[in-house]
Amino acid sequence: MIKVGVVGAAGKMGQQVVSEVLADKELALVCAVDKFYVGKEITPNVVIKDDIKEALKESNPDIIVDFTQPSVVFENIKIYMDLKVKSVIGTTGLKKEQIEEIEKISKKQNTGILIAPNFSIGAILMMKFAKEASKYFDNAEIIEFHHNQKKDAPSGTAIKTAQLMIENNDNFKTGNCIETETIIGSRGGEFKENNKGNIQIHSVRMPGFVASQEVIFGADGQTLKIHHDTINRECYMSGVILAVKHLFKNNTFIYGLENIL
Q1: What φ, ψ does residue 22 adopt, rounded to 5°?
Q2: Whether residue 223 is found in the same domain as residue 141
Q3: Tally of domains within the chain
Q4: Are 76 and 175 within one domain?
Q5: Predicted confidence band at 227 (pLDDT cuts at 50, 70, 90)?
Q6: Do the Cβ atoms of 133 and 224 come closer than 8 Å?
Q7: Parallel, antiparallel or unpaired: strands 27-33 and 46-49
Q8: Would you please indicate which residues are annotated as catalytic (active-site) residues?
Q9: How far apart (Å, rounded) are the C-alpha atoms in residues 157 and 150?
Q10: Whole domain around residue 56: which residue ranges?
Q11: Do residues 14 and 108 share a domain?
């Protein structure tokens, strides 16, 4: 039995994770942490607590699943590492420098962690297809759509997609003219990493969306669109549970769910 704790347990994703853990015969929910609904009973043996360190020390989980906020996730991860508790991180908004530091801490503490910008199998395939298409197209842009309560922009999925794309091509504006924005930001934000890449990413935030992304490739006389829609949060759960079970058997740093599929 794998002992699982959920941090951010009262949030929409956290509640879904709690339900999936309770329904899986190989998993046991041993702690739930959130700043809201403190004291609420999840099971007869698990109530929501607001102190991560206290909850982890009392319950001794094998794996923590974190769906919290971009503003706190980095500090949360350092707590998990300090206590040598493996963690699956679904919270987005981590900066490249933070991810690099987490990898160093993971190796130093000999404590595994899996960080995934997206747990949907369809979204992982979208990123894989976009990376492959980048070999053949020299012009591309990304548009991502999320609900209006998402705090970070662009999304972790859009950033991960761009990172994969520039592995196969570092110029996506071939033949573009010199541009002038009459309204600042109308062309979106330009993604670069290690001085490579120039992919424009556009972020849409409004009610009605859960999460969607479209990668548009263009060439003379044609366009290619790779589009993925998230209809509800259940689509992430198979990936989350897969990550938990993989990390239980392994003790490494992993960035991206595609690395364990």
Answers
A1: -65, -30
A2: yes
A3: 2
A4: no
A5: very high
A6: yes
A7: parallel
A8: 146, 150
A9: 13
A10: 2-115+234-259
A11: yes
Alpha-carbon span 214 to 247, nearest angstrom: 30
Q: For residue 81, what is the enclosing H or E element?
A: helix 73-82
Q: Are 180 and 80 found together in one domain?
A: no
pLDDT for the residue 99: 96
- What single-letter DSSP state applies at residue 173? B
User: pLDDT grade, residue 194 (50/70/90)?
Assistant: confident
Asked if 64 and 87 touch (Cβ cutoff 8 Å), the reply is yes
The rounded mean pLDDT for the chain is 96
Please state, in angstroms and rounded to a whole number, the distance separating the CA atoms of residues 43 and 123.
Answer: 33
- Tell me the whole-structure pTM to 2 decimals: 0.85
DSSP state for residue 174 in the 8-state scheme: T
Q: Give yes or no for residue 195 having a pLDDT over 90.
A: no
Q: What angle do CA 99, 102, 106 make, to 5 degrees?
A: 140
CB 258: neighbour CB atoms within 10 A? 18
Q: Tokens 């198979």 label which residue?
A: 238
Question: Cα(160)–Cα(170) distance, rounded to whole angstroms?
Answer: 15
* Element containing residue 225 per DSSP (H, E): strand 222-230
Looking at the fold, whether 73 and 37 belong to one and the same domain comes out as: yes
